[in-house]
UniProtKB/TrEMBL annotation:
Keywords: Heme, Iron, Metal-binding, Oxidoreductase, PQQ, Signal. Residues 24-50 are annotated as: Disordered. It comes from Neobacillus cucumis. GO terms for molecular function: electron transfer activity; heme binding; metal ion binding; oxidoreductase activity. InterPro entries: Cyt_c-like_dom, Cyt_c-like_dom_sf, PQQ_b-propeller_rpt, PQQ_rpt_dom, Quinoprotein_ADH-like_sf, Quinoprotein_DH_CS. Belongs to the bacterial PQQ dehydrogenase family. This is Cytochrome c domain-containing protein. SUPFAM superfamilies: Cytochrome c, Quinoprotein alcohol dehydrogenase-like. Residues 1-23 form the signal peptide.
Length: 641
């Protein structure tokens, strides 16, 4: 699970093959006689970024070579577009991973607005706004307010969107028209927003079917993955594959016991039709009296037959989790040199701060928990005075940020979050029942001021499982990597910089500001008419695209959101805070499901805070306060130093 509310790939072929594939056509098969081969990519012919992780195996390694180590310093901004210019009320796109196909970029915002953009110019092609009844449903319950939407799936002329309130929508890729929408609760009555379920992942299209996972595990929901037929949106499997027992059975005791959400995309092996996915933590988070013993399949990687949903194997990273140590990041499937021989493996780094590799067919462990951040944890006390720093904290380790694999060096790059938490467990079941909202019974205290919070970039040699190098970054690595055939890895930072790393040496060769902050997604890299582009989302709503020879300067923070009149009465900002902010940021600004604000004035100006309140960003919805109330709140918060 992800502390701030947790919130489709193609096969690599020919001489550049990273993973075993058998295809020769592009992702969007145009004919009705659809086959597996017709939906895989010939890597030599691909020009876009057609899935969440580029290929079905989610290696995030593209074949493009125009941008090289020699010329990367000539990169600049080719185009930039703030989505607020098109719709001032749209929520943020903070954790969206753009998909690019046939020269069109598709991005999605929180509350599932979808934008189709000309990938070469930034020109708006179409916008899809969810129907009013769907938006009304999203706004009806509190636990959806900060939920991200991490992308779409595009295939066969359709765009598939996983809606926050547990629906799957299919749009026409040409014009954004809604073709069909299915409600999960029509097939499984328990899966609904009112039961604390929500969806934050990008759906995955694979071989004629669309695969979805669940979010809301921290709320005590029962995690699952499910498959739907892409043409009819009818279930492919009779029922979901459930990751935890039904409440009251097995190890799942207690009113809020559950978890095991699957809130990041699944990976697929076209050679075997096996699918692999990461499973989140058990719930309640720090309180374990009602879930003693091992809690399978939580904090695990699970492999299924994608056609039938039949279980193949699983491997857990934490037997009994009381620290919120999901297996969160999407697994990668690699044909890599291991111990001197080629082997098909599955790799993934956990929020527990350890990285693993398994044999893809059998699940046999190859590399068992290589540490990549500081690890120092103990039992979580229920007495606040006895709370100690737990490393890693609830964000990880490695959260949802994706790794990448470079076949030339045989290196995997891991994005790390080197940050602790002061965790406090509930005293008993009665205390848990008092918080009938999100994260029942879970509390996190403010960090001491002298704690060094940072990030890491770790290169692992697949042949040995050992670290080749590790770079420290000023900010935690929330975004992740995308690599190219020219030996570069691109990534963004919370401070707003976009960087190009020499994969072999670990040296940063190029860095440029994006005109925004809080880059919390991995770049999408694509070509149009032979020109290579690198796209990021920054500042919550800005799409910024770099290319060789780009001349634009980073754009300013969007000012389109205007104050809506001035109030004639004196405004108490603390009352505004308690009405609009306390449920996520805590009664003492200490942070809960959203960040600590006790010292926000040290890092953000009044104008920056006001922009965040008005426009949203970092998974915060826009408009929780408006007009003079928003200004008073921003002024009050800016003095918290």
């Amino acid at each position: 699970m992800m502390r701030f509310l947790k919130s489709l790939g193609l096969v690599l072929l020919a001489s550049m093959v990273i993973v075993g594939c058998q295809s020769n056509n592009k992702n969007n098969a145009k004919n009705k006689g659809e086959t597996k081969e017709s939906n895989q990519a010939n890597q030599e012919d691909e020009t876009g970024f057609p899935n969440w992780g580029y290929d079905f195996q989610h290696t995030r390694h593209v074949p493009y070579k125009e941008i090289t180590k020699a010329n990367v310093k000539k990169m600049g901004i080719a185009w930039q577009q703030d989505i607020l210019d098109w719709n001032k009320d749209v929520p943020n796109l903070q954790e969206d991973f753009p998909v690019i196909h046939d020269g069109v970029m598709y991005v999605t915002s929180a509350k599932n607005h979808v934008f189709a953009i000309d990938a070469a110019s930034g020109k708006k092609l179409w916008v899809w706004t969810p129907p009013k009844d769907v938006l009304d449903h999203l706004n009806s319950l509190p636990w959806q307010s900060n939920v991200a939407s991490r992308g779409v799936a595009v295939a066969n002329g359709n765009v598939f969107v996983l809606m926050i309130d547990n629906r799957l929508a299919k749009l026409d890729a040409k014009n954004g028209k809604l073709l069909k929408m299915v409600n999960f609760w029509d097939h499984e009555p328990s899966i609904k927003l009112e039961n604390r379920y929500y969806e934050s992942s990008a759906p995955m299209y694979y071989d004629g079917n669309v695969y979805v996972g669940s979010s809301g595990g921290d709320n005590g929901t029962r995690g699952f993955v499910w498959a739907f037929k892409a043409d009819t949106l009818e279930p492919l499997w009779k029922e979901p594959f459930w990751t935890v027992p039904e409440r009251g059975t097995g190890w799942a005791k207690g009113k809020y016991t559950g978890g095991g959400s699957v809130w990041t995309p699944m990976s697929f092996d076209p050679d075997t039709d096996m699918m692999y996915f990461a499973v989140g933590n058990p719930a309640p988070d720090f309180y374990d009296a009602d879930r003693k013993g091992k809690n399978p399949y939580t904090d695990s990687i699970v492999a299924l037959d994608s056609k039938t949903g039949k279980f193949k194997w699983s491997s857990n990273q934490v037997d009994h989790d009381i620290w919120d140590y999901d297996a969160a990041a999407t697994p990668m499937i690699l044909n890599a040199k291991v111990g001197g021989k080629k082997q098909k493996v599955v790799v993934e780094g956990g929020k527990n701060g350890k990285w693993y590799a398994w044999d893809a067919k059998t699940g046999k462990t190859i590399y068992d928990g290589v540490p990549f951040v500081k690890i120092q944890h103990s039992d979580v006390p229920s007495d606040e005075s006895k709370a100690v720093l737990q490393w890693p904290g609830t964000p990880g380790g490695e959260s949802y940020a994706p790794e990448t694999y470079d076949p030339e060096t045989n290196y995997v790059l891991i994005p790390g979050i080197n940050s602790p938490n002061l965790m406090v467990a509930a005293k008993d079941a009665e205390e848990i029942a008092k918080d009938n909202n999100t994260f029942p019974g879970t509390k996190i205290l403010p960090l001491p001021k002298d704690v060094d919070v940072s990030g890491t970039i770790t290169a692992i040699d697949m042949n040995t499982g050992k670290k080749v190098y590790q770079n420290k970054t000023d900010d935690p690595m929330y975004g992740g990597f995308t690599s190219t055939a020219a030996g570069l890895a691109f990534y963004g930072e919370l401070g707003g910089n976009v960087n190009a790393l020499d994969i072999k040496t670990g040296k940063v060769l190029w860095s440029m500001q994006s005109g925004g902050k809080q880059i919390k997604m991995a770049p999408s890299i694509y070509t149009v008419d032979g020109k290579e582009y690198v796209a990021v989302i920054t500042g919550g709503t800005k799409v910024v695209v770099y290319g060789l020879g780009g001349k634009l300067k980073p754009g300013a923070i969007n000012k389109n959101a205007k104050l809506q009149g001035e109030a004639d009465v004196v405004i108490d900002p603390e009352k505004v805070y308690k009405r609009s902010c306390v449920s996520c940021h805590g009664d003492q600004l200490q942070g809960a499901t959203a960040p600590n604000l006790q010292h926000i004035g040290k890092t953000m100006t009044k104008d920056e805070i006001l922009n965040q309140i008005l426009n949203g960003g970092d998974r915060m919805p826009a408009g929780l306060a408006k007009g003079a109330e928003a200004e008073a709140l921003a002024d009050w918060l800016s003095k918290k130093k």
